[in-house]
Design brief:
With 136 residues, the protein is mainly beta. The chain is built from 1 helix and 8 strands, in the order E-E-E-H-E-E-E-E-E.
Length: 136
């Protein structure tokens, strides 16, 4: 599945390509590192973009769940990020990231997701707190 169909973002601010798995509490997505990605530098894509990559994966999860109810993707908010460690500075051109998000909690628009990016022999993980307001 193309991730852009489930998120409220448009290029160049899209940081996930495909959704490879999704369930009631879990999503897995991929991103190929290309030179046309926003923030790409000569060395590659800075790993500080991991926060946005994870947030868009959570957004794709919410968009897929909404799609099941015939609801268009909504804008959500990243409230906080905990326990993120970046062991490397850049993701290299041509490499593919595997991104996972596991829902830990969700109630009345507030949620928490355990996220992980798999890249070569590195794993970057973080706990994201998010909010999706009800449409007025």
């Amino acid at each position: 599945m193309q991730a852009i169909d489930y998120i409220p973002h448009q290029k160049p601010m899209v940081f996930i390509d495909t959704i490879s798995q999704v369930s009631e509490n879990y999503i897995e997505a991929t991103l190929e590192i290309t030179s046309d990605l926003m923030f790409f530098q000569q060395e590659g894509l800075p790993t500080w973009v991991s926060i946005e990559i994870m947030a868009q994966t959570v957004s794709a999860y919410a968009g897929f769940q909404g799609h099941q109810s015939n609801r268009a993707p909504r804008i959500g908010y990243l409230l906080g990020t905990r326990k993120m460690v970046l062991p490397i500075a850049y993701f290299a051109l041509g490499k593919t990231l595997k991104i996972r998000a596991q829902r830990q909690y969700f109630h009345e628009g507030l949620g928490q997701f355990l996220c992980e990016i798999e890249y070569e022999d590195h794993n970057i993980s973080a706990l994201l707190s998010v909010y999706e307001p009800e449409k007025e």
